[in-house]
Write a structure and sequence with these properties.
Layout: H1 10-28, H2 31-39, H3 129-135, H4 147-156, E1 164-172, E2 175-182
Antiparallel strand pairs: 1-2
Helix pairs in contact: 1-2
């Protein structure tokens, strides 16, 4: 195996190490190297460049300024985040458009995710507020849902999630008894 200096970037260092593991696994049919590669979700029979990304999310360039993930946005990009408040830099009011901030936040393609099933980039849909509040629990009302999950909630609670209403309580023999009634 080759030795590596940490003066190389971590990405270059890990790439070289993985390439050496791959070469050793393929050339010497090394069981240990193959197991290490499999634990890293890599195919021991493919070169590093053909492995694909191990990221679980979809990559993409910024839709406004076209920079790749990890790069800084171009000046005036509407997707750049403010390092102070986290809002949209060009409209947040923190005056970083005129001033140079102490640091800038690089682009990362952060997906929209369904709050129930975790689907990335679900199709957007609209429902009236009354319908949303009737079928979506309060803890999910500020989250995005895919249409399939929303429809499942409607099937789960055809009359809405507010099926029971607290109707007071009374004490009997020293114990509290709750009264609820169907809505």
């Amino acid at each position: 195996m080759a030795k590596y200096s940490m003066s190389k970037s971590p990405r270059e260092w890990s790439r070289n190490l993985v390439n050496e593991l791959l070469k050793h696994a393929q050339r010497d049919d090394c069981y240990t190297c193959k197991q290490i590669l499999k634990a890293m979700n890599l195919n021991p029979d493919k070169p590093y460049d053909e492995q694909g990304s191990s990221k679980k999310w979809q990559s993409g360039n910024c839709h406004d300024c076209e920079v790749r993930e990890g790069q800084l946005h171009k000046p005036g990009c509407d997707m750049e985040r403010c390092p102070k408040c986290g809002g949209q830099l060009i409209s947040c009011g923190c005056n970083y458009v005129q001033e140079v901030p102490a640091f800038r936040i690089p682009y990362l393609n952060i997906p929209s995710i369904c709050g129930l099933c975790g689907e990335q980039w679900p199709d957007m849909f609209e429902v009236p507020d009354e319908e949303w509040e009737k079928f979506v629990l309060p803890s999910l009302q500020d989250k995005m849902l895919c249409r399939e999950c929303f429809d499942e909630l409607k099937k789960l609670w055809p009359n809405g999630w507010k099926m029971w209403k607290f109707d007071g309580c009374h004490c009997k023999n020293g114990s509290v008894q709750w009264r609820v009634r169907s809505v």
